[in-house]
Amino acid sequence: MKLNKLNLENFRNYSRKFKFSPQLNLIIGQNTAGKTNLLESIFLLAYGESFRATRNEEMVSWGETLALIEGTVNEEFLKIAIKSEDGEVSKQFWVEGVDKKKSQFIKHFSAVIFRPEDIRMIQGSPGRRRDFLDDVWSSWSWEYQQPLITYNKAITRRNKVLRRIQEGKANKEELYFWSQTLEKNGEIIRQKREGFLDFANNYWKEKRSEFSHLEVRYLSSPVTVDLLEESYQKDLNMGMTTIGPQRDDFVVKSTEFGDDPKNVATWGSRGQQRLATLALKLAQLAFIEDQQGKKPALLLDDIFSELDQGNQELVVSLLPRYQTFLTTTEDIVVPFEAEVISL
Question: What is the pLDDT of residue 295?
Fold first, then answer.
């Protein structure tokens, strides 16, 4: 799948049309030129959501009420409208002029983004790593998004019931429905997260010799009605559910430190942590390609400033395989033809 054309109207600082190469697109501009905004619009066509806006209205140009993001992927015309009127914000999706739900829309284009912030995934909080696992699936699989949405709503409701029990305004039996919902959807989430991490390990061992010293271990927090019963008193004391996918984590280990693999987050140098992050991102690319039978677009947001020479060369070696959108503050030399977009 290739994004050939993009039309932006009142999207952040853009009302402009773009044509893209099916291979490398170099997006060059100073730090205030809007390079990341352009990547954000492409990301929207894949995920139906922004990777940076906390509110949808942030993406609508100041003083305007409607932003349009229109893209031609292969021969399909995709369109997103973000409307902000009377304090209400809505988002609509179309494919070939036909109104679609987001679950139907996201199947038409996939992308993987790599940003400087991703370097902190290895050493950062577990929440960053859970967000990564969600991103692996959410750009193309409603079979993952739907259970995740249902799970998050159910845990919010269950936590409210726990607090009402604390206040003497509810009884324990009111938890049962929400506990069943967590068990059903939590298991789907667990299986899919585990499936990707198993794929990553096999991919590194069998396809990427430069990562063969790495392995990722899933630290799953299973959730069942029985386990929730066991954790009831703790949950009640804390006023929140203390087990389940919202507590999941993973660690990347390396045999570089000896026969017994060690956690890269605590034993690795900054360069080794960057390599582990890159390994996870490449596994994400390969996994989406394996699952969909199509290559996702690769979005690189000024990452060369965060990578050493060896890792830069590794990224450059990937560029011919994917349609790539690479932002940079200065022109860079690559050993093949690129479309240059100056902002």
Answer: 92
CB-neighbour burial class of residue 86 (10 A; exposed 0-12, middle 13-18, buried 19+): exposed
pLDDT tens for each residue of 52-80: 998 999 999 998 999 999 999 998 999 99
- Taking 90 as the threshold, does the pLDDT of residue 304 lie above it? no
Q: How far is CA 307 from CA 246, 275, 283, 303, 311, in A?
A: 31, 9, 18, 7, 6
Q: Give tens-digit pLDDT for 251-289.
A: 999 999 888 899 999 999 888 898 899 999 999 999 999
pLDDT at 140 over 90: no
Contact between residue 172 and residue 144 where contact means Cβ atoms under 8 Å apart: no
Extract the tokens encoding 95. 């494919």
Q: What is the mean pLDDT of the chain?
A: 93
Domains of the chain: 1-110+294-343 (3.40.50.300), 119-293 (1.20.1050.90)
Report if pTM > 0.70: yes
